[in-house]
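Hey, I was hoping to borrow your eyes for a little while. For a while now I've been wondering how a particular protein folds. The fold is given in discrete form, as structure tokens running alongside the sequence. Could you read through the record and tell me how the tokens relate to the sequence? Take your time with it, there's no hurry, and the full record follows here:
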Amino acid sequence: MKPDVKQVLKELHALANPEAADGLSAFGIQGAQLLGIRIPELRRMARQIGKDQVLADGLWASGIHEARILASMIAEPVRMPQDKMDAWAADFDSWDVCDQCCGNLFVRTPWAHEQALVWSERPEEFVKRAGFALMAYLAVHDKNADEAEFEPFFEKITAQAHDSRNYVKKAVNWALRQIGKRSRSLNTQAITIATALAHADDPTTRWIGKDALRELTSAKIQDKLRT
């Protein structure tokens, strides 16, 4: 029999490490209820539980930082309609919960490409980050997508490259680099965009362009794209 929300929360609290929780701020990790549980431990719990959307919803509703990360690991992508994705994204209060949800769950939903475009224009810092994080994860994990499906992302990257908020600009940069490493054609397009950004007047835009160019034009990436 699978555990219920109360049982899982009890186990999470038993694993809590207050000292580790206090140290998370050094990594920019914040949240109302931090327990200080390491990701490998949460993945162990997720493997034991298996997929369970009802339990995932209950864990998310708890508001506990690590419970929400665990929820993203056991939730069922096909049972995450867009309105529920929007609701979860609206609750993001830390970059790691945002990224874990995108990488564990949202990238595997049928709406991932659409949500990436929509969220990339949202004003909230972590919702906007989720849009670009999704672009980066899709570039890596959506093996069956056509190259044309990634081209609209370039427009959003260019349009939002001026956003100086730390977790947004890093995600914009991340998306540009990951898309540009997917194929030779996308690499060429990404380099063109990164070059233009690198010559912009805005300092945030310049940083995104220059940093992306270093990786996109590196010998390591160019050699990989030749194979």
In short: The chain has a mean pLDDT of 95. DSSP finds 14 helices and no strands in the chain. Residues 1-81 form one domain. The chain has two domains: 1-81, 111-227.
